[in-house]
Amino acid sequence: MADWTIATSGDTAALTHAAAGYWAPRTWSGRGVAIAEVDLPAFEKGLGEVLKLPVYWLARARRGDAAVWSPPRYDPDDEFVYLTGPCRTDTPDPGYRPASTFDIDLVHLRGLRIRIAAYRARS
């Protein structure tokens, strides 16, 4: 998980990827996230580690679990996997933009991990 760092604060996880430029994750604040397909295994592993933390379970108990992520869609032209769901950045620009850091409420991480695991199992 060398390329990903996930920090928690309150009920939020801040996900940071080391890549800059083209291979940085792409976010559409409040609408979705795109991860380079080659980064999915490390990303999934990182999500799994966060799901083991007490802070995740406390957030889930307070807010319930919401399945709000779309099935992943691979775009062979750019080699990214796109998911519609509740991620956010500090800049709510329209469209997908490279963002090395984005936030997701802890309660939504499990649903994201399930979608990614299912996608990887099919691939």
Descriptive notes:
The protein has 123 residues and is α+β, with helices and mostly antiparallel strands. It contains three helices and nine strands. The protein has helices at residues 40-51, 54-63, 109-122; strands spanning 4-9, 12-17, 26-28, 32-36, 73-75, 80-84, 87-88, 97-98, 101-105. The strands form two sheets. Strands 5-6-4-3-8 form a five-stranded antiparallel beta sheet, with no helix packed on it. The protein has a four-stranded antiparallel beta sheet with strand order 1-2-9-7, covered by helices on one side. Strand 3 and strand 4 form a beta hairpin. The longest helix is centred in the last third of the chain and has 14 residues, at 109-122. It is globular, with a radius of gyration of 13 Å.
Structure at a glance:
This protein has helices spanning 40-51, 54-63, 109-122, and strands at 4-9, 12-17, 26-28, 32-36, 73-75, 80-84, 87-88, 97-98, 101-105.
